[in-house]
Design brief:
Distance between the termini: 53 Å
Radius of gyration: 20 Å
CATH class of the domain at 95-283: Mainly Beta
Strand content: 15-25%
Number of helices: 6
CATH architecture of the domain at 95-283: Sandwich
Bound molecules: 3,4-dihydroxybenzoic acid, fe (iii) ion
Structural class: alpha/beta
């Protein structure tokens, strides 16, 4: 394969992910939440006011105003509203939603979660291709309550990008449940998950979000990350991500979703290939 055809393939996959994320969102959450009139009034008024203040203070021109309108239309056409919201807004929503917790830190879910990934035993392997590229990673730990009690049978859902930065179901050619699994912790709340290290992830550069990033001179990178949802009856669901030390984008994640508590400390695996890492989850009571 020539270099250009690889670039084209990557671009084609990127274009697909926005549309698929929009479809997934519609199916799972698309009804939206409660719309209390007083809250709509308050929130919509504040956002509109902030936009108008920006226009006045920065003396926005008609050229800029029309560029914005054209761009907003394109975000919808490209199906990139879920991507836009999860990159530039979700981190603040998550901060507000979880600042009462005393257990493990959460962070954004992002646009690529799919519920009901195949169930695996507490010490299983995540679904992957026979020749899945990437350094093997053994991800292990324990799920506990804030009082230290192990949470037997806790559900640990793990999903992440492959070694090229692609998510199954959002990029063509990747098997449906690739690198997505649901693991049930053992009687001590422990899990030992075999997977591979994901690659850093670039948000699609060929759609409206990529156009904004290029026009503003930003970069499109998120550091390599594992996505997790950890749950147990009677406890608050934890949605989080874990990162790898030394990734340059831990400092400048475009999605603003890295926290120091979420950076792993992997070590070469004793008597095996690749790396292993311990990370425990502490769930707050409901
Ligand atoms: C986006 C992608 C991710 O993988 C993620 O974790 C967060 C946001 C995005 O493209 O919007
Ligand atoms: Fe992600």
């Amino acid at each position: 394969m020539s270099d250009t055809s690889y670039v084209d393939e990557v671009a084609a996959r990127a274009a697909e992910s926005g549309r698929t994320a929009t479809e997934q969102f519609r199916q799972r959450l698309g009804g939206g939440g409660a719309t209390d009139q007083a809250r709509v009034d308050l929130l919509a008024s504040r956002v509109i006011k902030a936009i108008n203040e920006t226009v006045i203070e920065e003396r926005v021109t008609y050229e800029e105003y029309n560029a914005l309108k054209a761009w907003l239309i394109k975000v919808g056409e490209d199906g990139e509203w879920p991507l836009f919201m999860d990159v530039w807004v979700e981190h603040s929503v998550e901060e507000v939603a979880n600042d009462h917790r005393s257990g493990s830190k959460g962070t954004i879910e992002g646009p690529y979660y799919v519920p009901d990934a195949p169930t695996e035993p507490w010490n299983g392997t995540i679904p992957m291709r026979d020749d899945e590229p990437g350094r093997p990673l053994l991800f292990q730990g324990q799920v506990r309550a804030v009082d230290g009690a192990p949470l037997a049978g806790a559900k640990v859902e793990l999903w992440h990008a492959d070694n090229l930065g692609f998510y199954s179901q959002f990029a063509p050619g990747v098997p449906q449940w690739n690198l997505r699994g649901t693991f049930i912790a053992n009687d001590e709340g422990r899990f030992e998950i075999h997977t591979i290290e994901p690659a850093p992830y670039q948000i699609p550069t060929d759609g409206a979000c990529g156009q904004l990033i290029a026009a503003a001179g930003w970069h499109a990178w998120r550091p390599a990350h594992l996505h997790l949802k950890v749950s147990h009856p009677g406890h608050e669901l934890l949605t989080t991500q874990l990162y790898f030390p030394g990734d340059p984008h831990n400092e400048d994640d475009i999605a603003g979703a890295v926290k120091p508590e979420l950076i792993l400390a992997p070590r070469p695996r004793a008597g095996g290939d690749g790396y292993e890492v311990d990370y425990d989850f502490v769930l707050d009571p409901e």
